[in-house]
Each structure stands twice: as structure tokens, then as C-alpha cells.
Amino acid sequence: MKSLFFSLLLFIGHLSFAGYSDSLQAALKNVKDDTTRLFLLDELVWEYLYSDIDKSQNYAVQAIFLSQKSEYPRLAARAHHTRATVFLQQNQNDSALVHFRKAIKVYTDNGLENLSAGSYNGIGNVYIYRGVFEKSLENYLQALRILEKYNSHKQKIGLVTANIGVVYFNL
């Protein structure tokens, strides 16, 4: 794990000399460690999510396949959450739901419930886009319960609370 953080520090230092996405892609070509590759793939998904959805989807698929070999369930769950977010951006709500639920299952099966709130929030987003406000509210409230239980960052609690407000506005 120490080598992972050392590698990431080296890559971050390199980022100041080139564009962020270019640096991530260059680092991805050169890294051998699967854990670091997963971190880089995740960053690339988010980097391209709003500018090149096809690239974002490609990196998300790579992360899913690589995460299946990972000994870190947290990374596998993150890969599913990230892929779900890409599907959500593409308005492929059924696929988004499948991957958000897979992320939650991996988190909870591995004692990482504290990390599942984002995926519950994502499911809430799917349902709010569909106009199914009761299911949206149910998932936002579950996300909020998890965030409060584990004393999460105030920004995350604020985001989920704002989403709950949107639901009540639309009921």
C-alpha cells in the first residue's frame, strides 16, 4: 500500500507539467500495479464524464474488469459506482441501478457500509429522474442515515439533504 501512495505522489508531481487527463493517460500506460491502475481509471472516468462520455465509459468498463481481480473490495465497489454514474449520465437508468446496487452489495458484504451512501444517493437520483419520488426519498434517506451514523463530511450530508428537499418540492 505504501508503494501505491508513493506512486501516486510521483504522478501528481508529473501533473503540473502537462494536462491532467494527458498525465493520467500517460501514467496508466506505464503503471504495472493493478491497484494504482484502478485509481487512475477511476480518475479518467470522472475526467471525461462530461466532455467525452464514450471515453468515460471505456475507462469504466476497464475498471470493472480489472476490479474483479483486485483483492480490495472497496475498489471493486467504487468501479461499479463509477460505472453506474456513467450510465446515469447517458440516461441508461436501468443499467445505472444495476451497478449502484452492485456497489452497495460489495460495500455491505465487506463491512464497508460507511462508503455506500453515495450509491444510495445515486439510486435516489435515478428515481428522481424517473419521477418516482417515493423511491427517491427512500434512498436519499438511507444515504443520509449512513452519513450521519458515520459522522461523514458536512458537504455530503448537505448534498443529500438538498436532494431530499428537491423530492419534497416535487411531491
Please explain how this structure is put together.
The structure is a single chain. This protein is mostly helical. Helix content is 80%, strand content 0%. The chain contains nine helices and no strands. Residues 13-18 have low confidence and may be disordered.
How many DSSP H or I helices? 9
- Look at the helices and sheets and give the structural class: mainly alpha
Which term fits the overall shape? Answer: globular
Report the sheet-strand fraction: under 5%
Major sheet size, sense and barrel closure: none
Summarize the helix and strand pattern as letters.
HHHHHHHHH
**Which radius of gyration do the C-alpha atoms yield?**
17 Å
- Total number of β-strand segments? 0
Mean pLDDT: 87
* End-to-end CA span: 47 Å
